[in-house]
Design brief:
The protein is built from 13 helices and no strands. It has about 270 residues and is mostly helical. The protein has helices at about 1-30, 50-60, 60-90, 100-105, 115-125, 135, 145-155, 160-165, 170-185, 185-200, 205-210, 220, 235-265. The longest helix is centred in the N-terminal third of the chain and has 32 residues, at about 60-90. It has one domain (about 45-265): MetI-like (MetI-like fold, Orthogonal Bundle).
């Protein structure tokens, strides 16, 4: 009986979570005239994929996708590398004010992005990178959460491996690159997957740091579809939303095993 109650609760929670997504997908396939069904029906009376074609006709969808893939992939790789190196230093090296510096890095997680966006914009403009894709990539590579995560991950790895490599004459960089980094791949994968999902859907920074439509990412470019709201063609807007969800969904589907193994790795040591 207890197990049945658990399944019922989980099913209800899943339904509440997935209902908006299901409604978005189904509504994107409504005929434009029925974008917002007056009778409130959940399932469309007929399936019409013309809204997906309209998305590619009204915005340069391929350019938006290319920009988003380029920006998000480079940020994810950059965070994986920088977080792994910083986490390794904080986990395995002793130096003056290490704990204070680590505390300051963690403290940056408490500062809202809206507070730092103006200084970041001024720095980007001073580097002549305003309205470029690099303006979105470079400031996002340092990650306080990723540094914390990788530090904890490296602390869970045997210190004897590093000591043995030092006895064999390996440099600190060789020890990291040849021994610890391969063992930390699951942790790095967590950082990469979380970074991809977050920055793929990011809207605020691209809105501030880019001006030209040729540098827009997918969430920012889809704003131009809101013109359809005035005509009642909500299906076109929702079709763009569905297209934008596909890459993040695929990353989660194919990366969930790595994500799960990385999050539970510490409990097996």
């Amino acid at each position: 009986m207890k197990k049945i109650a658990t399944y019922v609760v989980l099913a209800l929670a899943s339904l509440l979570t997935l209902a908006p997504v299901i409604w978005t997908v189904l509504s994107s396939m409504r005929p434009p005239a029925e974008s917002l069904s007056p009778d409130g029906s959940f399932v469309p009376s007929s399936l019409d994929l013309s809204s997906y074609q309209a998305v590619f006709e009204e915005v340069d969808m391929w350019l938006l996708i290319l920009n988003s893939v380029l920006v998000t992939a480079l940020i994810a790789v950059g965070q994986m590398v920088s977080a792994a190196m910083a986490g390794y230093v904080f986990a395995r090296f002793e130096f003056r004010s290490k704990n204070l510096l680590f505390a300051l890095i963690l403290a940056t997680m408490m500062v809202p992005m809206q507070v730092t966006i103006v200084p970041v914009f001024m720095l980007i403009r001073g580097m002549n990178l305003a309205d470029t894709l690099l303006a979105l990539i470079l400031p996002a590579i340092p990650t306080a959460f990723g540094t914390f995560l990788m530090r904890q991950y490296f602390l869970g790895l045997p210190a004897e491996l590093g000591e043995a490599s030092q006895i064999d004459g390996a440099s600190p960089w060789r020890t990291f690159a040849s021994i610890y980094a391969p063992l930390a791949v699951p942790g790095m994968a967590i950082v990469g997957i979380l970074a991809f999902n977050y920055h793929w859907n990011e809207f605020f920074r691209p809105l501030i740091l880019t001006i030209s439509e040729q540098n827009f990412t997918l969430p920012l470019g889809l704003v131009s579809l809101q013109g359809n709201m005035g005509t009642g063609s909500v299906a076109t807007v929702l079709a763009g939303v569905v297209i934008s969800m596909i890459p993040a969904f695929l990353v989660f589907v194919f990366g969930q095993r790595t994500l799960r193994e990385g999050l539970t790795a510490g409990s097996h040591r």
